[in-house]
Amino acid sequence: MNFTFGEYKTQVIISRETPVFEKITADLQAVGKKPLVVIDENTKSIAEKIFGSNVHYCLLRSGEENKNWQAVETILAAARKAFLGRDGVFIGVGGGVIGDLTGFAASVYMRGCRFVLISTTLLAMVDASVGGKTGFDLFGIKNLAGTFYPAEIVYMPLESLATLPQREWKSGFAELIKTAVLDGDDFLDVLAENAGKGEYVIDSVNDDANDALLECIERAVLYKGKVVSEDFREGGKRKLLNLGHTFGHALEAAAGLGNITHGEAVAWGIVQSCALGVELGITPRTRAKKITALIASSGYDCSMPHPLAGSTAFLESMLSDKKKKDGKMTFVVPDEKSARVVTLEDTKIVEKILKEGFTF
Ligand SMILES: NC(=O)c1ccc[n+]([C@@H]2O[C@H](COP(=O)([O-])OP(=O)(O)OC[C@H]3O[C@@H](n4cnc5c(N)ncnc54)[C@H](O)[C@@H]3O)[C@@H](O)[C@H]2O)c1
Question: Cis before residue 157, ω within 30 degrees of 0?
Answer without folding.
Answer: no
